[in-house]
Amino acid sequence: MSLAVFISRWPELLASVLWILPLGYGVYLFDNEVRTRDHLLARSVLPAAPAQQALPAIEFNPEAIATVLGLAEHAANVRSAEPLTLRASFVSSAGISRALLAGADGERLYQVGESLPGGSVLRRVEVSRVVLWRKGREEVLTLQPAIELRVLTLNPTTPRPAPPLLHLRPSADLPPSP
User: Fold this and answer.
1) Is the CB of residue 107 less than 8 Å from the CB of residue 85?
2) Whole-angstrom Cα distance, residue 175 to residue 66?
């Protein structure tokens, strides 16, 4: 083949090479994929495992789970045997709630999760009671009602305070104070 013939056929030869190279590479990739899959299948065939004895079924106790998560019924709570008295409870929606407990050593603030002198743990603080975790069960300390209630009554002859000002005004426009 002379150089003049080769140059005249150059576009045809280039077109055939551009078709043969991608097809040949595709056949190579397909063959490689088939061999890899066969190799992986041969490795994944394992001998059968010996039969194992069935383990005894564990009894499901939803009450125990509810108690641990703090979802047990409140009627089941027992009055605490702790020698403590609930003086005040500070319930916080954003943060740690605290309880003021009085005992033989005096009064002290405790927060949720803290151990108490009698060995129990402060589990939950509510508005009128605290829940303790003692010896695997919940116990309750309730807030003792005050013995003496103080009610402030207004005398009807007492003048009513002036209504709040809705807008800011200079002090010269304010009514005279009594």
Assistant:
1) no
2) 63
CB 76, CB 139: distance < 8 Å: no
For 114-159, how does the pLDDT look when each residue is reduced to its tens digit (9 = 90+)?
Answer: 988 888 888 888 888 888 888 878 888 888 765 554 555 556 665 6
Strands 137-142 and 129-134: antiparallel
* Nearest CA-CA partner of 128 in 73, 89, 84, 75: 89
- Give the position of tokens 């280039």: 14
Which of 2.30.30.830, 2.60.40.1930, 1.10.630.10, 3.40.50.300 is the CATH number of 70-142?
Answer: 2.30.30.830
Q: The pTM is what? A: 0.42
